[in-house]
Amino acid sequence: MTKQALISTNEPRYTGYRVAQVVDSKADTFEVADSLFWADCADNVVADQFWYNPDNQQIEPNLLPSPPTTEENKNTAINLLQETDWTTIPDVADPAISNPYLANQQAYFDYRNIVRPYAINPVAGNINWPTQPTPIWSNT
User: Which of 130, 78, 77, 76 is nearest to 108 (CA)?
Assistant: First the structure.
């Protein structure tokens, strides 16, 4: 008994198409639209964890994304810092000048101190980026 995978040509994956459904046998298949078709597959194939490669007409496991490069991590760090640049302006957290004022500026300083080294001395690989603080505004 050969499993069958339903391939959706409407949903590109990598350089092929999504495996949308898997059934236990040809007897379990049903008629599908022109943009779909059934293909024989191995017993370990699971929908959305495999893709159909039209070049070799094989069903293959999803490719794992490559870990970020040094340059990608540097760019991520720079973008994260740029998103929070406004929090470093002294006036934004000064109740004598701003109303409302940023009450948790220190949380942003701490966050930026964790991110900044990756912009200055970037490394390759997966980084567990800190969560950006949510601004807390207070009125004088």
Answer: 130
